[in-house]
UniProtKB/TrEMBL annotation:
There is a cross-link at G147 (Glycyl lysine isopeptide (Gly-Lys) (interchain with K-? in acceptor proteins)). It comes from Stachybotrys chlorohalonatus (strain IBT 40285). The modification 1-thioglycine is found at G147. It is found in: Cytoplasm. This is Ubiquitin-related modifier 1.
Length: 147
């Protein structure tokens, strides 16, 4: 974090706009986030991720199957952003559907949702503890279907 003249950490507000394309229509939404600054390089620490959503979960995200997200590289405690942070961010800031229980249960990803991180099962990557990196491709697929 950057230091102010008094030695305190300076919070720098950052607004990131992400866009997605659906049916040849591009929609942009400003998303307010805070990002740290790497004092040695003076650069913002933001990860840009590509997300795919399928198996019925896309209905929770305005029927969007592909999203590009810019998220802070550090969470509110200054620790690297993890899948836990991403799941919370998705449910609180991105998901427009009120049925959050179809995506999260007890503040964790709902059982029955398959997650791939860069084409590998997230269980091999540390699940919710996986530290996000710029360029990551995250896939959420619901394996639960009515019958």
């Amino acid at each position: 974090m950057a230091q102010s003249e008094t030695g305190d950490e300076a919070q720098i507000p950052l607004t990131v706009e992400f866009s997605y394309v659906h049916s040849a229509v591009t929609r942009s939404f400003p998303v307010g986030i805070s990002a740290g600054i790497d004092p040695s390089f003076g650069r913002l620490l933001v990860h840009v991720l590509t997300m795919s959503i399928s198996g019925g979960l896309e209905m929770l995200f305005s029927d969007q199957r592909q999203l590009s997200l810019a998220i802070p590289a550090l969470d509110k405690d200054g620790k690297p952003s993890t899948m836990t942070f991403l799941i919370d961010h998705l449910s609180q800031k991105v998901m427009e559907d009120s049925r959050k229980e179809l995506f999260i249960l007890d503040q964790h990803l709902r059982p029955g949702i398959l997650v791939l991180i860069n084409d590998a099962d997230w269980e091999l990557e540390g699940e919710e503890a996986y530290q996000l990196q710029s360029g990551d491709n995250i896939l959420f697929v619901s394996t639960l279907h009515g019958g």
